[in-house]
């Protein structure tokens, strides 16, 4: 019988444990796959001195399991060794769409100070070209209409999500974009006034992809 999407997520969550560096601060992302990873992580809690989390949701889950969660500003120059997070889509160049769970900005910040980004995803997330999943864009609330118009000018169908981010901002979901050049689009949308960040992780993509498939977990490295 075929494995469910949740079972595939659990498999990659388990496989990600071997990327945890004992004694080093760990970066933890957000989402249902990461929730499963945090559950697995509890078994090696004594090896993780502290975590930096990308959302209130993950912080609560980590703290409930007894992990220490520190603010990124408390971190020294050494940064984070490994950051483990999910994705909504990932392409062959390891560029991703993220932000389905609304934590894109903090995820991008934590990823930016991490040496290795390990992406954990079920097989449905691997695509040839990004864009089937609506692209999330976090915006300052007063800029929502202006940014929506600019996304529509690119050919997207845009929806304002009924959601407020951990940063007190709004999210626009831009559907229907075929993203052939993720780095260029990330740079362009990030340059618009009012955009906090776009959920394209191309300039800082993943380094390792653990993909949950029917044939087991496949590992891809950049
Ligand atoms: O970017 C994210 C949250 O902002 C998640 O990583 C992404 O939405 C994948 O989530 P899930 O593991 O639930 O499929």
Automatic annotation (TrEMBL):
<feature type="active site" description="Proton acceptor">
    <location>
        <position position="107"/>
    </location>
</feature>
<keyword id="KW-0413">Isomerase</keyword>
<feature type="binding site">
    <location>
        <begin position="85"/>
        <end position="88"/>
    </location>
    <ligand>
        <name>substrate</name>
    </ligand>
</feature>
<comment type="similarity">
    <text>Belongs to the ribose 5-phosphate isomerase family.</text>
</comment>
<dbReference type="GO" id="GO:0004751">
    <property type="term" value="F:ribose-5-phosphate isomerase activity"/>
</dbReference>
<dbReference type="Pfam" id="PF06026">
    <property type="entry name" value="Rib_5-P_isom_A"/>
</dbReference>
<dbReference type="InterPro" id="IPR037171">
    <property type="entry name" value="NagB/RpiA_transferase-like"/>
</dbReference>
<comment type="pathway">
    <text>Carbohydrate degradation; pentose phosphate pathway; D-ribose 5-phosphate from D-ribulose 5-phosphate (non-oxidative stage): step 1/1.</text>
</comment>
<feature type="binding site">
    <location>
        <begin position="30"/>
        <end position="33"/>
    </location>
    <ligand>
        <name>substrate</name>
    </ligand>
</feature>
<comment type="function">
    <text>Catalyzes the reversible conversion of ribose-5-phosphate to ribulose 5-phosphate.</text>
</comment>
<dbReference type="InterPro" id="IPR004788">
    <property type="entry name" value="Ribose5P_isomerase_type_A"/>
</dbReference>
<comment type="subunit">
    <text>Homodimer.</text>
</comment>
<protein>
    <recommendedName>
        <fullName>Ribose-5-phosphate isomerase A</fullName>
        <ecNumber>5.3.1.6</ecNumber>
    </recommendedName>
</protein>
<feature type="binding site">
    <location>
        <position position="125"/>
    </location>
    <ligand>
        <name>substrate</name>
    </ligand>
</feature>
<feature type="binding site">
    <location>
        <begin position="98"/>
        <end position="101"/>
    </location>
    <ligand>
        <name>substrate</name>
    </ligand>
</feature>
<dbReference type="InterPro" id="IPR020672">
    <property type="entry name" value="Ribose5P_isomerase_typA_subgr"/>
</dbReference>
């Amino acid at each position: 019988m075929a494995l469910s999407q949740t079972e595939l997520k659990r498999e990659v969550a388990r496989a990600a444990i071997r990327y945890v560096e004992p004694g080093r601060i760990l970066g933890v992302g957000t989402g249902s796959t990461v929730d499963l990873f945090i559950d697995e992580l509890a078994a090696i809690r004594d090896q993780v001195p502290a975590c930096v989390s990308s959302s209130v949701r993950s912080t609560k889950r980590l703290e409930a399991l007894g992990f220490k969660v520190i603010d990124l500003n408390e971190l020294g120059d050494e940064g984070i060794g490994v950051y483990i997070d999910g994705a909504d889509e990932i392409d062959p160049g390891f560029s991703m769409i993220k932000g389905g769970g609304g934590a894109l900005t903090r995820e991008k910040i934590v990823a930016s100070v991490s040496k290795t980004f390990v992406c954990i995803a079920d097989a449905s997330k691997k695509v040839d070209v990004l864009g089937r999943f609506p692209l999330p864009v976090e915006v300052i609330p007063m800029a929502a209409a202006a940014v929506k118009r600019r996304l529509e000018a690119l050919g997207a169908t845009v929806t304002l999500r009924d959601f407020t981010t951990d940063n007190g901002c709004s999210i626009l979901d831009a559907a229907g974009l075929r993203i052939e050049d993720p780095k260029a689009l990330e740079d362009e949308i990030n340059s618009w006034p009012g955009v906090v960040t776009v959920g394209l992780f191309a300039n800082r993509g993943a380094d390792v992809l653990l993909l949950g498939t029917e044939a087991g977990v496949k590992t891809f490295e950049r």
